[in-house]
Amino acid sequence: MVSTNLAKLPSLTGLRFFAALLVFFFHSSLSNSPIPPNDPINPFADSGIAHAYEQTFLNTGYIGVSFFFVLSGFVLTWSSRPGQSVRAFWRRRMTKIFPNHLVVFTVALILFAGATISSVGQWLPNMLLVHTFFPQPEINLSVSPPSWSLGSELLFYLSFPLLIVPIRKIRDGALWAWSAVVVAGTVAVQLVSMYLIPATPKSAITPISDMQFWFGYLFPPGRLFEFALGMLLARIVLAGRWPSRIGIGVSLGLCAIGYAAGFVLPFEYTFVAATIIPIGALIASVAAADVAGRRTWLRSRPMVWLGEVSFGFYLVQGVSIFYLRSLLNGSAYGVPGAVLLIVGFFGASLLGGWLLYRFVEMPAMRRLSRSRKNSRSTLPDVPAPVSAAAEPAEQTSLRAL
User: Fold this and answer.
1) Residue 153: what are its φ and ψ, rounded to 5°?
2) 0.70 surpassed by pTM
3) CA–CA dist 193, 178 (Å, integer)
4) Which residue from 72, 157, 180, 319 has the least number of CB within 10 angstroms?
């Protein structure tokens, strides 16, 4: 049973930054930009170094995004409490993602319009975050490519009040079995993608077809399995059933193994299936460490700050990397120049992330996330001990999504 005095999860907030950092290195190592004319992002002139840099971070973006999806399910379940209004929940979640998204969307629309936008049918779905329901790459990766993941997050938020009903009814002893079922679901998605989705024409930025990439990676319903796993893991930790022998060190080792497996498994499995178990283990073990009161460097003030700005840091990369790189017309540089350019990308992304957090996200949450009117519709309960610490846990969830 979890102590109500330990409901905050600051280490998970700090861990978020490293997930966003993995996405950053993935984006900065790309040999083909998702923005036409698809010039290289990778800045190294030496082909061997450029190849090594790209290969090192070839799949880290997929890991970072999957981490965020599992984490979303975990913290929403962790912070759910009796009497929580469905309408208020949706209001807070929409306020969390849309202000940041609309600011970056507007900037990207201005900067990329000439290269990527030809009709309202391309930019409007992106603005509404329904663009990843369309299989056409000129729609699902339009305007600001990193915003594709927000389409999945939007589906998660809308689905949570429905999903929590059956998940809260699962008896503690069956939680592991259901976790195995949703992990199998991530594999099933890729099997469908590999064998039932057309394999041609090939994508300009991946070794599979545009349709396979869309269905196996971008299509929001296929990512619900990761979200559901996070919900189940939260229940497992709340029930005190996370095994102590699977700590942070073991989980990191599993992540390394899962990442290595991505280089030998079919490409589609690198999206989720190869690393879903290690990611889930890492999130649960870090949360269990916080619950047990163990001090971790992830909960230090600098790491928590980095975690807080990581949403903006992730979101602005479509501008801070892709657009800034386009200004250089794909020019390549020696090692010192290339490293300095990557450091510049990082600095611009971190600055943009902080600006979004400080001047968009937090003011919006203060002013728009709460209604003066109470809704009669409420979210169903999840197992208590979290209810007694609802407000601290809710604050944690705001940082973690």
Assistant:
1) -60, -40
2) yes
3) 23
4) 180
Query: What whole-number distance in Å separates Cα of residue 247 and Cα of residue 89?
Result: 32
Q: What is the pLDDT of residue 133?
A: 97
The distance from CA 335 to its chain's CA centroid, rounded to whole angstroms, is 31
Is residue 218 within 8 A of residue 155, CB to CB? The reply is: no
pLDDT score, position 122: 87
**Residues in contact with 189: Cβ distance below 8 Å, sequence separation at least 6, in sequence order:** 215, 216, 222, 225, 272
Ordered DSSP codes for 91-132: HHHHHHHHHHHHHHHHHHHHHHHHHH--SHHHHHHHHHT-GG
Question: Tokens 């840091």 label which residue?
Answer: 313
Domain ranges in the chain are 4-400
CA-closest candidate to residue 144, choices 42, 277, 33, 288? 33
Average pLDDT, the chain: 88
Paired strand residues for 333? 44
The conformation of residue 219, written as its DSSP 8-state character, comes to: -
Amino acid in the structure at residue 299: R
**Sign of torsion, CA 288 292 293 297?**
negative
Task: Please write the tens of the pLDDT for every residue from 328-354.
Answer: 887 899 999 999 999 999 999 999 999
**Other residues' Cβ atoms within 10 Å of the Cβ of residue 55:** 11
